[in-house]
Amino acid sequence: MVNTITGATTRNGINFYSYSDFSYNHELTISKDGEYAGTVFLQTEPFIVGGHCMGIFASKNYKTMSDESKLYIAALINKVRPMWAGNDRPSVQKSRLEKLELELPFLNNELVFSYMENYIKALEAERIETLEAYLTVTNLRDCHLTKNDEKVLDKFAKLSDTKSGVEESEVFRLSQVFNLSSSKKKFNANMIEFGGKFPYVARGDSNNGIRGYITESEEFLNSANTISFGQDTATMFYQKEPYFTGDKIKVLRTKEVELDRYKALYLITSLRKSFSTFSWGSSSFNEKVLKETDVKLPIKNNQIDYTFMSDFIRAVEKLVIKDLVIWADKKIATTKEVVAR
């Protein structure tokens, strides 16, 4: 099984995994469809290129180029991609990309790869130092699973097992769980000035849906601790702060409890599962159908079990953070060795 790159803007461009007798490695990939904005990624694991994507391979004179140098170049292409990305046919985009000019470090008529490598390594060391401080301050280094964590994870496994006989979940209409409303005011992204105070949430699938920050009349702010829902993309994110929105954004507010990050993550995952059969851009995302959409949630004493949702997400967070802490510790140890030398 190898990574299949199809132009996605998240997960390093990986969309799914395929069986293949051949693959590439340690090269760049770039989306060729304007819908995906031409995002560039370095692939450090075996991969093949699928639709909406192209590979960028080092020429024979630069086959020994390091991953750090490739990351440096990828960052430059990502920075200028609005100049060439668009909805033109792939052959036009390929030609435009081949003519793209990048400003690279140059000395004595040669590219200075050592500068690129050292620059990327310095950035990595800085980010790892910040990560180490963050993990310590937030106490996220404590990844030990308590008995309650193990109990919650076991219960979830049984909820997911149709043969377990455990009936501790129930299907609810979305309108039973949420109050669904339109944004207080829709702000056109082409008519606002970014660089302001409050989040501007659009229908993008990254950065929590936040396209930037704007300052407008606060009477049009949508409430914090709600879920923003992009109607034609089914993108949804927990918004912990008051926010403005663009077009076709619905605001979901829980009826029974105040939403927090943990409950929201569980609810959003369940909602995404419910919407997985819908078509992108479908009119199925109109408000009437949204309200009637079924979502399966855990229950206790015939009520939605929000405590279980929070406990489960916290336990999963520990499992994820554990892998991150192990990776960070290895990186930190390596960095310290390099500095000592």
Brief description of this entry?
This protein has 341 residues and is an alpha+beta fold. It has helices at 67-80, 90-98, 113-137, 147-160, 174-177, 261-275, 287-292, 306-340; strands at 2-5, 14-18, 27-31, 40-43, 47-49, 53-56, 106-107, 110-111, 169-173, 178-182, 198-201, 210-214, 226-230, 236-239, 244-245, 249-254, 294-300, 303-304. Helix content is 36%, strand content 22%.
Write a structural description.
The two termini are 39 Å apart. The protein has a four-stranded antiparallel beta sheet with strand order 10-16-13-14. Strands 2-1-5 form a three-stranded mixed beta sheet, with no helix packed on it. A three-stranded antiparallel beta sheet has the order 4-3-6, covered by helices on one side. The model has no long low-confidence stretch (mean pLDDT 84). The chain is α+β, with helices and mostly antiparallel strands and 341 residues long. Helix 1 (67-80) crosses helix 3 (113-137), helix 3 crosses helix 8 (306-340) and helix 6 crosses helix 8 (306-340). It is globular, with a radius of gyration of 23 Å. Helix content is 36%, strand content 22%. It has eight helices and 18 strands.
